Each structure stands twice: as structure tokens, then as C-alpha cells.
Amino acid sequence: MKYFDDFKVGDTTEFPPRSVTEAEIIAFARDYDPQPFHIDPEAAAKTPYGGIIASGWHTAGIMMRLMVDHAIKGSTSMGSPGVDELRWLKPVRPGDTLSLIGVVTAVKASTSKPDRGVVKTQYEMRNQHGDVVLRMRGNGMYRRHPDMAAAAAKEA
Questions:
Q1: In DSSP terms, which residues pair with 107 in a beta bridge?
Q2: How many domains does the chain have?
Q3: Which are the contacts of 78, defined by CB distance < 8 A and separation ≥ 6?
Q4: What is the pTM of this model?
Q5: At what angle do helices 22-32 and 56-67 cross, to 10 degrees?
Q6: Element (H, E) at 28
Q7: CA 130 to CA 114: how far, in whole Å?
Q8: pLDDT tens digit sequence for 19-41
Q9: DSSP secondary structure string, 3-22?
Q10: Alpha-carbon span 25 to 144, nearest angstrom
């Protein structure tokens, strides 16, 4: 079990790669972002993108799934108080293989709730060419180890 107290600034997590298909791009977009360049190959070919591209929200959803499957499971995650930055830097296309890396940039124990703390992480998702397609600075809230939480509560 990974607790808040186990995170250190500079900790780096590399997530396994994930390929994206045209069928899943279109299926996601039909439900959540039905713009022509996400759902219609003929219309998409006439856009500046020159073809189907994934919704940025789909790309963010892929990132979230990688984070849950390979980092959040097995941790004391309590959710997130929010995201500080989310940028879609390049389009994701059918056949792209995406890789995600996360680097812890700050770790702050809560002063008002000694049983938890916030971990700030910078994420970058790259395609198979090494191009950054998404960048996010996010915040994860985690429970403290019971011994550390008890010690912090005594200090408060």
C-alpha cells in the first residue's frame, strides 16, 4: 500500500504504452465530443488535421486509466482536489502509441487534516515519435501512514 508519506519530490513513474484505434476514437467522440474531425473520416480529411484525431478529453481519459491501473490502485488515494494545468499539444491519431511519465514536483502534508496530504505531479504523454501530445500538472490527495498521521495529529 502506497501512502502519502512514501512520495518524494523527483519520484518518476513510467507507465506502459497504450495504442489508440480509430474505432475507439470515433466511439468516444460520438458519446462525448461529436465534432466532425473526431467522428467523420471524410469531414476530418478536409480539416487542418487532415484526418481523424482523438478528442483531447479522450486522451486525458487514456491518461487517467493508465494512472488508475498502474499507480492509484494499491495506494491510499482519496481523489484529487483538482488540476493546475492541462494542455493538448499535438493531435492523437489512429494507430498512435502513447507513453506516459509522471514526476512528483511537490509533496505537502495537510495542516488542517493530519491524516492526509497532497502530491503534485507533472505528467507528459508522448506518441511513438516522442512528441508530447498532452501535459498535465495535477494534484492527488493520499492518506498518511497511520503512524505519521498520529504523530502529525499530536503536533497540531
A1: 119
A2: 1
A3: 116, 141, 142, 143
A4: 0.92
A5: 110
A6: helix 22-32
A7: 40
A8: 999 999 999 999 999 999 999 99
A9: -GGG--TT-EEEEEEEE--H
A10: 38
Rounded Cα–Cα distance for residues 37 and 140 (Å) = 33
> Could you tell me the CATH number of the domain that includes residue 97?
3.10.129.10
Nearest by Cα to 102 from 5, 1, 11, 8: 11
Question: Grid cell 480509430 — which residue?
Answer: 22
Residue 49's closest CA among 136, 133, 135?
A: 133
Length of the chain: 156
Give the range of the structural domain holding residue 132, as residue numbers without chain letter.
4-155
And the C-alpha cell for 132? 508530447
The pLDDT, as a whole number, for residue 156 is: 66
Other Cβ atoms less than 10 A from the Cβ of 140: the count is 22
Grid coordinates representing 41 are 473520416
**Residue 144: what are its φ and ψ, rounded to 5°?**
-80, 155
pLDDT tens-place string over residues 110-140: 999 999 999 999 999 999 999 999 999 999 9
Residue 90 C-alpha from the chain's centroid? 16
SS3 98: strand
Task: Please give the Cα distance from 111 to 94 (Å, whole number).
Answer: 46
